[in-house]
Amino acid sequence: MRTNPHVLEVNAHIWFRNLQRQGGGSPQTIADVPQENLLKFKNLGFDAIWLMGVWLESPVSRQIARNDKAINDYLQKVHPDYSKEDIVGSQYSIYGYDVHPLFGNNEDLLKFKKRLNDIGIALILDFAGNHLSVDHPLTLSEPEVFVRSQSEPHDKTLFFQTKNGDWMAHGKDPYFPPWTDTVQINHFNPKARKFLTDSLLKISKLCDGLRCDMVMLMLNKVFKNAWGSYVSESAPQEEFWPQAIRAVKEDAPLFVFGAEVYWGLEWEVQEIGFDYTYDKILYDRLLMSSPQDILGHLSAEHLYQKRSIRFISNHDEQTPTAAFGVEKSKAAATVAATISGMRLFTIPQLWGAKERLPIQYIPKDFEIDQDIFNFYKKLLSIVNDPCFHGGQASMKRISPVNDEDQTSTNIMAWVWTQFTTCKIVAINYSGAPARCRLPIDRAPKDEILQITEEFTQQVLRVPTDEAKKIGLRLEFKPYECKIFTSEFC
Fold it and tell me: What gap in Å lies between CA 453 and CA 349, rounded to an integer?
């Protein structure tokens, strides 16, 4: 993948089932997906597809989802014509690390991977190392792999009883209720660690990288705080992830590990071997903070920035139009797409979906907001330029137009340079008009400086002396984004 790669999250069930509904030569397995559908990803400039939800489905998880009151009440409100047959088990309640029969088998997935690789696209899959499905066969054959209570627990929402009579814990984030369709793995148990490592080695043969779910829950200190009173083993001397990542990369040095991680543990997780980590801090600041707070986050150490996953959408968050509003979402997307790091998008984001649907729900049709889709096609074509991947990024200073007008404080700017090409990104991250002067540090000897704005293709012609002395005067509508291309910055 390129530096600063573009990744598209694709809900495998929704995407594949709707390909099959198209009829005619619809694919029987994932290996049969028509080439034109793969080329759509390529033509949009994506370096990788994160195919979310390809693993074996838990029968119990499916029943839990279909009977879940919150899911049914929500779908009744937003999709009243839904059917329970359109609800599947959670893609993170994994029954086994083999391909779901809907998509064929492991060999079909390998063929699909090769076809993607042949057109320059990597395949990323999921790994949920913290837990498995509540009905996973290991709960009966290897109960010591999981967190158990030695006696009947008082809190029956946190534990469940297997057919063998063991009381096992559900997987859990300490800040949220337990995931009742999962069972919590005992990360201090040697058999559990071997099972997880063997699973990673197996999966790594089927893809080019993994998005690893809730990685911080597997750190020794986090696991001990959450479950230490229930396990007899002591914390291992080494964290799980460094040895597991080493094992995979011995055979596949270019294999990519991405981590879902929160709580300020991103740098620590990068340090133990992950290539990329979620940047939820940026998401939260884009949603709620000022341009100065956003710029403060973007001034962090360069290597940390380069290894961050930038997003304003994923399957856990509200859709950007719902969370940000249409115009602010476009500005937020432009920020995330033009800074260093892995740049993550989703199909509902590109199509302008108005509400987040449960990941267990497989809708039969979609409404595409053509204005939003056209915006993303344009943005992706702009940031597909080599300068945004092989160039060097730095913050760009701006100035107010005069002492009375301080709206320039709402404008963020940075520049990418590669050889003689400059890409200047300037964004008014506010709901009011704003103005600034953009200094030009390097200008041509010609009398006129010519610079092109990429979204509108407007060409600005400014006297070079004026550009050198006071910079370009720029005016912005609320949340307006400008990306300039020039030989001079």
Answer: 24
**Any alpha helices (H) in 316-356, and if so which ranges?**
320-324, 326-337, 347-351
CB atoms within 10 A of CB 133: 30
Element containing residue 323 per DSSP (H, E):
helix 320-324
Give pLDDT, residue 471: 82
Residue 289 confidence (pLDDT): 95
Nearest to 6 by CA among 452, 333, 345, 408: 345
Note the pLDDT of residue 48.
98
CA 203, CA 51: separation in Å to the nearest integer?
13
Global pTM reads: 0.95
Q: Are residues 340 and 419 in the same domain?
A: no
Q: Are residue 137 and residue 28 in the same domain, yes or no?
A: yes
Question: Could you tell me if residue 111 is left (phi over 0), alpha (psi between -120 and 50 degrees) or otherwise beta?
Answer: alpha
Which uninterrupted H or E stretch holds 428?
strand 421-428
CB atoms within 10 A of CB 68: 18
Strand partners, 171: 179
Sole residue written with tokens 């337990």:
178
Rounded Cα gap, residues 114 and 11, in angstroms: 20
Tokens 């007899």 belong to residue: 232
Give the pLDDT of residue 472. Answer: 86
Pairwise CA distance, residues 283 & 279, whole Å: 7
Q: 3-state class of 183 per DSSP?
A: strand
Element (H, E) at 393: strand 392-395
CATH number at residue 106: 3.20.20.80
Residues 44, 155: Cα–Cα separation, whole Å:
50
Among candidate residues 487, 393, 389, 477, the one with its CA nearest the CA of residue 429: 477
Same domain, 79 and 224: yes
Q: How many CA atoms lie within 13 A of 348 on its CB side?
A: 24
Going by C-alpha positions, the residue among 116, 103, 109 that lies closest to residue 8 is: 116
Q: Which residues of the chain have pLDDT under 70?
A: 23-25, 442-446, 488-489
Single-letter amino acid code for the residue at 132: L
Looking at residue 351, its pLDDT comes to 95
Q: How many CA atoms lie within 13 A of 60 on its CB side?
A: 16
Residue 311 inside a domain? The answer is: yes
Q: Extract the tokens encoding 291.
A: 């341009």
